[in-house]
Design goal:
The chain is α+β, with helices and mostly antiparallel strands. It has a domain at about 20-105. The chain has three helices and four strands. The chain has helices at about 20-35, 50-60, 95-105; strands at about 70, 75-80, 85-90, 90-95. It has a four-stranded antiparallel beta sheet.
Length: about 120
């Protein structure tokens, strides 16, 4: 009988994967909104300073207060909330959208099927 070993850490028997960064979630949400591969989207840092996204990342992990940050890319309005929700033009990019976007990337990092946005 073959069984897979359980990975154990000092505190838990199951580790949660690290959630994607704010930058990654915003890039994937914008790409999905435009129905293009993330590498084919306009560079995110043309619309917002990288330091701002790093600050949002820190806020998200360290601050329990509710907040929302919005910025304009010139084409879309993006909102990021303290709960990690990213919205593009008022349409939330949900956790299931994120998982679908990540799962639909093939081994070379390209979408292998269109994303089904609700």
């Amino acid at each position: 009988m073959s069984s897979k070993p359980t990975v154990r850490s000092k505190h838990t028997t199951c580790e949660q994967p690290t959630p994607p960064s704010v930058s990654t979630r915003v890039c994937l949400a914008l790409a999905a909104a435009d129905d293009v591969h993330p590498w084919e989207s306009s560079p995110l840092y043309d619309a917002i300073d990288h330091g701002v996204l790093e600050a949002l990342e820190a806020l998200e992990t360290r601050d329990s207060r509710a907040w929302q940050f919005e910025f304009d890319t010139g084409v879309h309005t993006v909102a990021v909330t303290s709960s990690g929700t990213v919205s593009v033009d008022g349409v939330a990019f949900s956790d299931s959208d994120l998982r679908e976007a990540l799962d639909s990337l093939d081994d070379n990092g390209y979408f292998d099927r269109p994303l089904d946005r609700h």
